[in-house]
Amino acid sequence: MIESVETDSYHLLIRNIRLPALPGSLKTTNLASIEKNGTTLEVLGIDIGGTGIKGAPVNIQTGQLMAERFRLPTPEDATPSSIADVVLEIVQHFKWKGLIGCTVPARVEHGLVRTATNIHALWLDTPVEKLLSEKTNCKVTVINDADAAGIASVKFGEGLKSQGLVFFFTVGTGIGSAMFYNQVLIPGTELGHLRLKGDAAELYVSDRTRVNEGLSWKRWASRFQKYLDRIEFLFAPDTIIIGGGVSRPAKVALYSKYLSTRATLLYASLENEAGIIGAACFAGETSEAGETGEMSETGEIATF
Ligand code: BGC
């Protein structure tokens, strides 16, 4: 049976976000980026995946979605400009004018895309934050999809109480990784590209490979166990959290009995929304205090 490979989401951070108090008279024109007690609560989270691009406004203090998720298919060519068009459609759907956090399935350094293994080669060195900010006329902060999903897990999900070294893996088209130490993200890890069987591990153990090669869950789990062994040989994680499409309870039930780790092994519960939530929280955390995320006509970011 052919199964669809879920590549869209992954999982998230850490400290509470506190922004300065707003003047009582301030009115917002957008769908909520700012709320009552002077704290920026809502940020639009967008998760760019291999099959779909999804977004929703997120309350970044509770991790709740504030409106139903809106999803559009990822365009066939998946170039930066065609993806940016879809991101704009999502922004327009929510009539959004505030801060936006967005994921990409690649390493992002200072707003630039630095790897392009599972995405169109044109993404390499694309100034993605600039591209999406100009396209949407909002301030957009971009983060790797696995880092975002890991933030969601650590802040609101099963990783909430995990201290020490925590690894979060998203298993979908590729394998994404996020590393936390005492709940602080160490960004930009690419552990799906660790060598296994002479090539990038994700080619051997991703969910796409499981489907393409028609592997039983037992066979796939025995491959994934090799990956986990390698991780535990190189690092000493206290907790490993598995996310992405394979973390759905019905699937976990089919393979978890074949996996064993020294670390505590957990499965992500925020699977479909983790990328959206994590991207929104990351944007809220990294935006400068007082920024509303709305661009003025001169391209400046408005402050309150
Ligand atoms: C990319 C990562 C990404 C992962 C999951 C990998 O191929 O290199 O950056 O997090 O896929 O999408």
Mean pLDDT across all amino acids: 86
Q: What Rg, in angstroms, do the CA atoms define?
A: 19 Å
Q: Could you estimate the helical fraction of the residues in percent?
A: 25-40%
Order of helices and strands: EEEHEEEHEHEEEEEHHHEHEHEE
Strand order of the largest sheet: 3-2-1-4-7
CATH topology of the largest domain: Nucleotidyltransferase, domain 5
Q: What fraction of residues sit in β-strands?
A: 15-25%
First-to-last CA distance: 55 Å
Q: Tell me what the CATH architecture of the largest domain is.
A: 2-Layer Sandwich
Secondary structure tally: strands: 16
CATH class of the largest domain: Alpha Beta
CATH homologous superfamily title of the largest domain: ATPase, nucleotide binding domain
Which ligands are bound? Answer: beta-D-glucopyranose
Overall structural domain count: 2
Globally, the shape reads globular
The number of distinct helices, counting runs of at least 4 residues, comes to 8
Largest sheet: 5 strands, mixed
Structural class: alpha/beta
pLDDT below 50 for ≥5 consecutive residues: which ranges?
A: 1-32
How would you characterize the overall build of this protein?
- The strands form 5 sheets. Strands 3-2-1-4-7 form a 5-stranded mixed β-sheet, sandwiched between helices. A 5-stranded mixed β-sheet has the order 10-9-8-13-14.
- Helix 1 (80-93) packs across helix 2 and helix 3 (145-156) crosses helix 8.
- It is 28% helix and 23% strand.
- The relative contact order is 0.20.
- With 304 residues, it is an alpha/beta fold.
- The protein starts with 41 loop residues before the first strand and ends with a strand.
- It has 2 domains: 42-147 and 274-303, ATPase, nucleotide binding domain (Nucleotidyltransferase, domain 5); 152-267, 2-Layer Sandwich (Nucleotidyltransferase, domain 5), CATH 3.30.420.40.
- It is built from 8 helices and 16 strands.
- It is globular, with a radius of gyration of 19 Å.
- Helix 7 (249-255) links the parallel strand 13 (239-243) and strand 14.
- The longest helix has 18 residues, at 217-234.
- The structure holds beta-D-glucopyranose.
- Beta-D-glucopyranose (BGC) binds at residues 105-107, 115, 117-118, 144-146, 170, 174, 176, 190, 192, 202.
